[in-house]
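Our preliminary data section would be incomplete without showing what the modeling component actually yields. Below, a chain of 189 amino acids is followed by its predicted structure, encoded as tokens that our downstream tools consume directly.
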Amino acid sequence: MDSSFDFNQPETDASPSCKLDEPPLQVMLEDLRCMESNISQIWDYSFEHEKSQWTKDKLGSFLDPLHELWSLDDPQLCLSLQIYLSLSARSSEATYDVIRSNIKECYPESTMLLFDQVQTQLKAITGILPLHFDMCVNTCLAYTGTFATLTECPFCGEHQFEQHLDIDSRTPHRQFVTLPIGPQLQALW
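Predicted structure:
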């Protein structure tokens, strides 16, 4: 009888997280406080960041999204969206504008949307709105959640805002844009 398990061999833990040559993970009390604060902020989330960036209508459509399917019957809107989406990951606003200009030159009656107009339409159709967050110039952290009240990075010491000798600047060194996951998932179905 062939068995793949040998009862005479000592049992070993095959999990990849159990490596004897790695130092044990050290969790400090401050790490636990930070984690507890993050959990508390999730429970008490109030959409203040969204309220500060979006109009009441945009926030309302985010919190209570449309439930009907969109119909893209307008061929000019369809063309604008198709070109915008095909360029958005690889090209600039200027590229879109040049393509639009060429189309309008060839077809003067075209009502193809401007770049900003197609962005507005896409946001209205999908309900997906960007959120901008300040972040450390060295990408150590985002000034949100537990770090929202900081003005200096606790990891590298860099200031959140550009420093000028004569004025108190509120211009962040760096920002990142995120798209909330809920409307993205809803747009798929």
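The first helix runs from residue 29 to 43. The mean pLDDT is 82. Preliminary results of this kind motivate Aim 1 of the renewal.
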